[in-house]
Amino acid sequence: MQLTIILRIIGMLLMIFSVTTLPPIVVSLIYSDSTLMPFVITFLATLLAGLVIWFPVRNHRKDLRLRDGFVVVVIFWTVLGLTGALPFMLSDEPQLSLTDAVFESMSGLTTTGATVITESIDTLPPSILFYRQQLQWLGGMGIIVLAVAILPLLGVGGMQLYRAETPGPMKDSKLTPRITETAKALWYIYLALTILCALAYWAAGMSGFDAITHSFSTVAIGGFSTHDASIGYFNSPLIEMVAVFFMLIAGMNFALHFLAWRSFSVSPYYYDTEVKVYLGILATVSAITVSYLYYSGTFDSFGEALHQGIFQTVSIGTTTGYTTTAFYAWPGFLPVLLLLVSFIGGCAGSTGGGMKVIRILLLFKQGSREVSRLLHPNAQIPIKIGGKVLPERVVEAVWGFFSLYIACFIVFMLIILATGEDQITAFSAVAACMNNLGPGLGEVGAHFGNLSDTAKWVLSLAMLMGRLEVFTLLVLLSPAFWRH
Amino acid sequence: MKIIILGAGQVGSSVTENLVHEANDITVVDTDANRLALLQDRLDIRTIEGEAAHPQVLERAGAEDADMILAVTNSDEINMIACQIAYTLFHTPTKIARVRSVEYLAYPQLFSQEALPIDVLISPEQLVTEYIQRLIEFPGALQVLDFAEGKVQLVAVRAYYGGPLVGHELRALREHMPKVDTRVAAIFRRGKSIPPLGNTVIEIDDEVFFIAARKDIRAVMGELRNLDEKVKRIIIAGGGNIGKRLAKALEQRYRVKLIDHNRERTNMIAAELKKTMVLLGDAADEELLLDENIENTSIFCALTNDDEANILSAMLAKRLGARKVMALINRTSYVDLVQSGTIDIAISPQQAMIGSLLAHVRRGDVVAVHSLRRGAAEAIEAVAHGDRSSSKVVGHAIEEINLPPGTTIGAIVRGDEVLVAHHDTVVESGDHIILFLVDKKYVPAVEKLFQVGITFL
């Protein structure tokens, strides 16, 4: 591990990301909402911290090694989660404790969307609201990917960082030969989607402020809202459908958006197996949800059941976590079904959470291969996706990922149970955090404010673990990493 | 520049490594996924697994907007057909292919635009053979590089005790040899470059790069070291492509012995070559070397495809009394390790070849590029175009040209005439200018210098 080089990059990143507190400052000035100082302090503190870290080691230039990549990514997410908590602690409203502020900030950055703010969100100062949404937006495409895009000097090291952050089982595929160009392309697409989404929301009847802030959390598959009732506040099926559309788009692999945009055609989506499976799963679950809602008489009219069912399925299935209604109070098996769908989550290379569709697909194919092998002991059955044979290495890695994901899940759940919560709460809280979903069931249906401090810290860790896809964090915790 | 490299073998990977640092978008194609993974781990490139000549693979590699395709797979046929396909389907502007087999090279009309549209043919073995040949021609030189079709040469020499100029200032060179015009382009002392000024004193062990017309090279070298006695006997270890070609090129003028351990190979070479003595045996066999009069050998060249074997047999030959030993070393990290020790010259085939490719990557009218000192430094031959108003070079005296730091203009070739650069030489349009860059990072600045303003059309 090359400590000086890691420090230099962390310092540089901190200085760059101190700039992200400027938009909330502008918002604060526009609305003159008296929350100016917390942001100014955060800005200066982050900038100064970055400077102090960077300055002594500014001349240590060397390529990042594999190990350094993991350390930089984990440290940076952690540090940004901590500095991101400052405005929540410093402002008069909501004035959170350290634990709550870190949870809120981590929930924002990892695009989870779980909140600990127990008072009314609607009355919070606009700058704080904007800041929460912006956190999600930054975390959506990935802060490291953003850094790689704007810092060409990361060079080859950029690839190490990129790999440690991007979700999905196959991280070596690049859209363009150079990593900075790839990162830039991703952010351009992300930015374009955000703008389109904001315009669509605005056209559908949201106010300018709501449209922009909600576009942030929609495209990031985050789930924070500026209202207590989330998307339900607008009570408009049109807005819900706009949200559904952009959640679906954001849950697809951004490499597909890139290909489609370059070739001006929709054929990349059409030929992609993962997207087909992703849409298929969501369609099936929507159909089940809608019919169950209708036949159980939860809603009076079929139309109501239809749009509530679809919206809630897409919102939970893509791990966004917007709500239009108290879905956790829905009958019988629906809330649990939706929560389980969130384990599948979005596609690889999207902003969505969960284990990613492609991994589930691979596991399923692997399972059916074993069945075929029992019938035909001598058969050679390769695992194919979209007509291409996948290397065994990828399949192995997916199994490793799956087992670790489940193991971490169980450990976290046991810890939450030990803090005194009931089973449904513990299960759904961990699922909501690890899958970067947001809302849970039971005690954590509306917000996470009533949990103990220990539980909040553990869940913050679970969110980071989910966002960095377990491996990156576990590598740092493995003894082999620290042995030279 | 968008470049597609076909083949991730020794040549392909070293070329990739050299080009990736020049802000190029590089995609490498190979059939071996493991090799690609190794490359991608180290370098910021994109890799595609597949058959290099298949149109679909080329398309996936981005052939549609590629500026250059470089076919260096180990099959001549794949390389040629890949260039053909790139030309027919994707209209790739520059197509470079490695063609090794003399059977094809013997018919140059094959490579015309109507037949096999390949713009540049490279044959690494041929380049390395020529490179070694030049070194043998000028014993004592570490590197000899041709510019302007060999009219001008850049020579690297290590200053030794006994050279008349050693211990004197550079300006004394002129007094020593009033008739010979030369220019010292760079001096490297203990691995670091120092600017060559008139009052710079040359010390023992300095690596001096100078530029002069071909006929003057020997005279200048004599100033820096006692000239080695003329080469008479040469032993070549390794009868591969390079060894055989070299023996063939040298056998008329020198007494050449070639050692190889493969019986069929030795039989074949012995049948093909006329005067070379072909020996069957191990090049690291002390008895064999002694029997073959190693102590009276002027040059021992270890040219097998095994780096370690080359290094060890060269060291052994040196200890047994060979006057000068050279070793072919592919692995760049070994080159520095070895050169300052027992082995006199480490030949890096990549470096010998990369220059011919770099010339096509450079912007502006660049004729030749030679990569020096493991790619850290570079010598460039560029053509000046335009007039005083549109060009930053033409119509200006050398002292007026705003050169980036560490860059020197060594010589100017005007038609057939070689002018060694002096501060008052005025550049004309069409001049070939030979520059030496101590640090490669200033290459873009030099490129800019030679780009003509928009007004010139």
Say how many strands of chain B there are: 22
Strand content bin of chain A: under 5%
The total of helices of chain B stands at 15
Q: What is the tally of beta strands of chain A?
A: 2
C-alpha Rg of chain A (nearest Å): 22 Å
Q: Can you list the strand order of the major beta sheet of chain B?
A: 3-2-1-4-5-6
Number of helices of chain A: 23
Could you characterize what this model shows?
The complex is a heterodimer of chains A (484) and B (457). A two-stranded antiparallel sheet of chain A has the order 1-2. Chain A has helices spanning 3-18, 22-31, 36-54, 66-83, 86-90, 98-109, 126-141, 143-150, 155-165, 179-203, 208-219, 237-250, 254-263, 267-270, 273-295, 302-317, 334-344, 357-375, 392-418, 423-434, 453-467, 471-477, 479-482, and strands at 384-385, 388-389. Chain A contains 23 helices and 2 strands. Chain A is mainly α and 484 residues long. Helices cover 65% and strands 1% of the residues of chain A. The model of chain A has no long low-confidence stretch (mean pLDDT 89). Chain B has 457 residues and is an alpha/beta fold. In chain B, the strands form 4 sheets. Chain B has a 6-stranded parallel beta sheet with strand order 3-2-1-4-5-6, sandwiched between helices. A 6-stranded parallel beta sheet of chain B has the order 14-13-12-15-16-17, with helices on both faces. A 5-stranded antiparallel beta sheet of chain B has the order 7-8-11-9-10. In chain B, 47% of the residues are buried. Classes of the chains: A mainly alpha (484), B alpha/beta (457).
Features of the shown structure:
heterodimer; A: 484 residues; mainly alpha; two-stranded antiparallel sheet; 23 helices; globular; B: 457 residues; alpha/beta; 6-stranded parallel sheet; 15 helices; 31% helix
